[in-house]
Specification:
- By secondary structure, the protein is mostly helical.
- Helix content is 75%, strand content 1%.
- The protein has 23 helices and two strands.
- Belongs to the EXO70 family.
- This is Exocyst subunit Exo70 family protein.
- One of its GO terms (biological process) is protein transport.
- One of its GO terms (cellular component) is exocyst.
Length: 706
Amino acid sequence: MAMAEVESIENLVLARQLLQTSLEKSRALASALDKMGPRLEKINQRLPSLEATARSISMQQCAFAGIRGHIDCAIGPAAAVLKVFDTARELEKSLLSDPCSDLFNYLSIMKRFEEALRFLADNCELAIKWLEGVFEQVEDNAVTNDWYLLNVKKSLRILQELQVYEERARLDGGPLSAAFENLEIEFKRLLTENNVPLALDSLATSAAEQASIIASSSLTVPVIQKLQAIVEKLNSDNQLEMCMSVYVDVRSSNAKQSLHALGLDYLEMSIAKFDDVQTVEGYIDQWSKHLVLAMKHLFELEYRLCNEVFKKIGSDAAMGCFSKIASHSGILAFLQFGKHVTESKKDPIKLLKLLDMFASLNNLRMDFNRLFGGEDCIEIQNQTRDLIKKIVNGACEIFWQLPLQVELQRRSSPPSDGSVPKLVSFVTCYCNQLLSDDYRPILTEILVIHQSWKKEKYQEGLIPNQIYEIMKEIGLNLDGWTNAYEDISLSCLFMMNNHFHFCNLEGTKLGDLMGDSWLTSHEQYRDFYAALYLKKSWGRILALISQKGLTSLCGEDLVERLNAFNEAFDETYKKQSSWIICEECLREKVCQYLVQAILPVYRSYLQDYMLLVEQDATAGKYLKYSVQNLEKMLSSLFQPKLTSNGITKHGHVLVSVKYTGWGMENKLSSLFQQKLRRLGSIKKAHWIGKIKFFVTNQFRMTLTPI
């Protein structure tokens, strides 16, 4: 009970305290409300203006909400353009450096710079369009804040300037244009610094040495790789023309230097000099040799380099450059020289040179077709075909006129010394050369081509028949010339010399063609004229001192006959001292048989004569020649005359034969002459026996006065 009362009293105390607190709060709130009244009144007074301000803000928020999408679309491209522009400016600084320090890095920078320019070109216009749209929206939505308008205009101006930057970068003087110029300079530097003329005059060596010489003039792999990279870059930007021009200039200059070392001044020789066969003959040999060197090594090298340097962009550029290099450096000059040769005087000796030229071109046919087979080499192809046509026509024209050329010399005079005419020596050697393994296949091929052009079939007998005609005309010439001699002895010597010359053709191509019967007939004529010469020249002289009737002669008769012998011998010796027997073996044997025929008779006569001297000392003064002197004089007859340089003028031992009637200088083949001398020594013993028989019998017939 007591406890309950206590709790009730405590509750009452707490309630009283709560009420007291609430009362105090109410009083404080009442006081605050009293104070708030004036303030609310003031707020109430300001509400209309605040309402108007809020309404204006709401309207602007709605306007910006309408163009927010346009602004967001414009911000992205514009920000990207500005970022790429900053990158492009940094790359532009790098392009100012020299590409030779690191070419491939320089090319990488160029690539990135071009990509940046393309990005600016593609996106500046887009960003400008978006900003122009924003500007129109701002104006259309009555957003009159000048700050916004100024910023939009400024952004537009910046983007427009960036668009112009891309265009200016590609113009002359711009960073990209300057970069391409740097590449062209580097391209030329790489070519020039690695430009080594090819030592063509040193290529007549072993294959290993040739490879080394060619490698030294070629471009190394690293250099080629750099050139390829530059070519590829310039081509991708349509800047290849200048690069190709530089390549042609540098490599053409190098090729010219390579050819200049060979001494090709003769290629620029005046046209008038081509009619001088003696001068041109040596140049044609050089032409063939130099053309082979140029084609096999120089142009082959340039062809390979062109293909390697330009291989990444196709063959058209490579072939375009190569054709210009070949044309500028000298191939056209080679072809022009050949053309001048074909158009010059049609001398027989030129036939062999035309055959040489055809052989050279024919051997290089595959090289010409491979190197100059493209469309860019049309001029070279046309000139080559024209040259071959002129060579074939010229060679055939000369070949068919050879018999006529021989016939035209019939009106000329025979040699005054009875030697083999230079025409005969030339023609026999000439025919042997035409029939040789070196020339006959070439001549046959030319005739086949020429016949095909005329729609005719080649006949195998064309060449032999023409040679027969030539030799027939030579025989007719000899018949005419021998009749021109007033001295029958000289005529016999002349015919003996010429028939002996023909006999020596045994075993040669010409001798084989003419046949054994032809050679045998000349052997018979040789022996006949040898005997006839001895009879006509010395038979009457021997009769003066023959043993017949000497015993019945008185001293006065002996002196008279000796004087007659001396006079006849002097006359004959003086006359025949200028005569020539070309072949050494024939000359030695004729002199030997003169000695054998005359000296025994003379010695016997002197023995009888010395008996007279013993009786009459005055008879000794008529003794003009001793046996030894007479032998020496007879042995010295018929010697070839030496020129100022020690070369014999006649016979097969001559080094050069010039026959002015044909207007030619022919250097006889040393191998052919050696062969003739070998054949002469082989046949010597056989011929000695035959001539000995003729001489002995003829002298026996002529011991009595004629």
